[in-house]
Amino acid sequence: MTSNLKHSCRFSCLVVALAIASAAPLFASEQSQAKQAGNIKKSQAEQIALSKIRGGTIRSAELQVANGKHFWAVFVAKPDKKNAKEVHIDATSGKILAVQTEKPGDQAEEPPKIH
Questions:
Q1: Are 26 and 80 part of one and the same domain?
Q2: Residues β-bridged to residue 58
Q3: What is the CATH number of the domain that holds 94?
Q4: Are 31 and 46 found together in one domain?
Q5: Is the model's pLDDT at 33 over the cut of 70?
Q6: Is the pLDDT of residue 106 over 60?
Q7: pTM for the full model?
Q8: Mean pLDDT on 74-95
Q9: Secondary structure of residue 51 in the 3-state scheme
Q10: Is the pLDDT of residue 63 over 80?
Q11: Sequence-separated contacts (24+) of 48-57 with Cβ below 8 Å
Q12: Are both 58 and 78 inside the same structural domain?
């Protein structure tokens, strides 16, 4: 019984070590992508969007890439409106690139942000 326990422990330790080793390149890749994405953090992009859509609340924000350029897509909802706004913010400069209206059918794809 003791040898089975030792074998089980060794196997578990090996599985954990392999999981950590395989995640390291992914983490490095995410760090590299974040460096290439620009200087604007998610929280900053959310504040920029809220300054444009006053009285709104953040539903979600995600970093996206189009034509090799990184930008934040921030979804803002207002309590008295059916439509939400999608604000695109340059991830390098913080400049607002576009503001689009999202209809209720489009919004169903975006889950509300949980704080």
A1: no
A2: 76
A3: 3.10.450.40
A4: no
A5: no
A6: yes
A7: 0.61
A8: 94
A9: helix
A10: yes
A11: 48/74, 48/87, 48/89, 48/94, 48/96, 49/74, 49/76, 49/85, 49/87, 49/89, 49/96, 50/76, 52/76, 52/85, 52/87, 52/96, 52/99, 53/78, 53/85, 53/87, 53/99, 55/79, 56/85
A12: yes
